[in-house]
Amino acid sequence: MIFNSFEFLIFLPLVFLIYWLIGSKKTQWQNNFIVVCSYFFYGWWDWRFVFLLLLSTLIDYYFGIIVHQTQDLKRRKTFLWLSILNNLAVLFFFKYFNFFTASFSQLFEGFGMKIHPYTLDILLPVGISFYTFHGMSYVFDVYHRRIEPTKHFGNYALFVSFFPLLVAGPIERASHLLPQITQRRIFRTHQAIEGLKLILWGFFKKVVLADTLAPIVGGVFDHYEDHSGISLLIGAIYFSFQIYGDFSGYSDIALGTAKLFGFELLSNFKFPYFSRDIAEFWRRWHISLSSWFRDYVYIPLGGSKFGKKKAVRNTIIIFLISGFWHGASWNFIIWGGIHALLFIPLLWLNRNRKNISEVVASNRWFPNFRELLSMGLTFGLVTFAWIFFRSPNLETSFGILQKILTMDGKKIDISLNEFHLIIIVILVDWAQRKDERKVLRFPKWILVPLSFSFLDQIIASMLHFSEQEFIYFQF
């Protein structure tokens, strides 16, 4: 089931009503009910993969208990690695097996040896990268004594499978979500209203902005030979806002839905296109993934404690792994490599934490010229990297870049009517840039007509367009 479907618009209010009718005094009943609903939500896509989710959850649940109970450090580390290898094996089989067999085949062909790679014709389970990362972080935290394992399997199953975050994040931490699962939750009107606002704004970004841009972007990237250089540049800009509207829209709907049930999830986006450098961009884009790699890969590798050279090495590793996490393709690895190359100069010059404290123009309505220039440059570099992310292969990526750089053809042959949607999102985001969790904080005389306008456009878009899956479902 996906958020932007009519099935979800029936599913959510029904689950909400039954959940609160159960009553806040019966927390465990509420938890068990949400687990069942989450598995139903996941199984709506393909019921067979429910068993994979359940198996992954069971294994990590028991590894958490075993790691905690084992006193011998060597044995504890062995169990930790067994847990990691189990999760990586699942990812490898479903997500990377075909990539590696095809890559080895190409490698042998380079030495003049012709082999026929064996590939598997299997579906990639939706959200597999997200719920395996949930399990790994849980066992990691148990191993490092940051948390104690939960003894109640149903509570752990809810941590892994909570339906708002199950298929595309944010990647939650057990230390943040498990205490909320075990404690009593009371319905709070202001929390529910904030949740509804987040859901409304998330739907607008996804259904109205991203889904409107999707067919235009698809036409540009799938048939780039037929378009001019300026049209390809506009198409790349469109994709920058398509993926932002798609993924941040999903995150807003997830956070808002969780609020309806009394949960507060981790923020995943903090207006990344207002960033003044690449380091700030990665503190604001897909925050839960960036912090996951920082805490569970970068820091264990030594972080920046052992000099600049080691820090640069670790940064390259992190970005390459991040690219590969997104997809089994050289395009994603190059995309990660580009961001590593953009990040390293800031790290080397100790400027990677320059813009860490305040949002841009924090005490002003408008940015100054320097801020505007730095935001424009950062957005341009991010958009350049997105070309590799969106293209189906490297040949398309380089073909698009060549036509853009040489301005091969100056005739604009794609629609420009969608720019007004981009401007709306930029203006609304700018007005609320100080707090990503409290959206649409306008006076009632603005909020009421604005909400009805957004709702009207969402309904019209859902009726006009076929259901568009969220981009990050494939990861």
Can you characterise this structure?
The protein has 475 residues and is mainly alpha-helical. The protein has two domains: 6-187, no CATH class; 190-276 and 355-474, no CATH class. Helix content is 67%, strand content 0%. The chain has 17 helices and no strands. The chain has helices spanning 6-22, 27-43, 50-69, 73-110, 128-143, 153-161, 174-182, 189-222, 229-260, 278-284, 287-298, 308-326, 330-348, 369-390, 394-405, 419-431, 444-464. Helix 3 packs across helix 6 and helix 12 packs antiparallel against helix 13 (330-348). The longest helix is centred in the N-terminal third of the chain and has 38 residues, at 73-110. The protein is globular, with a radius of gyration of 23 Å.
Overall pLDDT level: 87
Give the tally of β-strands. 0
Radius of gyration: 23 Å
**Structural domain count:** 2
Describe the global form: globular
Helix content: 55-70%
The helix-strand sequence is: HHHHHHHHHHHHHHHHH
Content-based structural category: mainly alpha
Number of helices: 17
Q: What composes the largest sheet?
A: none
Residue share in β-strands: under 5%
Distance between the termini: 16 Å
Low-confidence stretches: none
Short description:
With 475 residues, this protein is mainly alpha-helical. 67% of the residues lie in helices and 0% in strands.
Topology:
Layout: H1 6-22, H2 27-43, H3 50-69, H4 73-110, H5 128-143, H6 153-161, H7 174-182, H8 189-222, H9 229-260, H10 278-284, H11 287-298, H12 308-326, H13 330-348, H14 369-390, H15 394-405, H16 419-431, H17 444-464
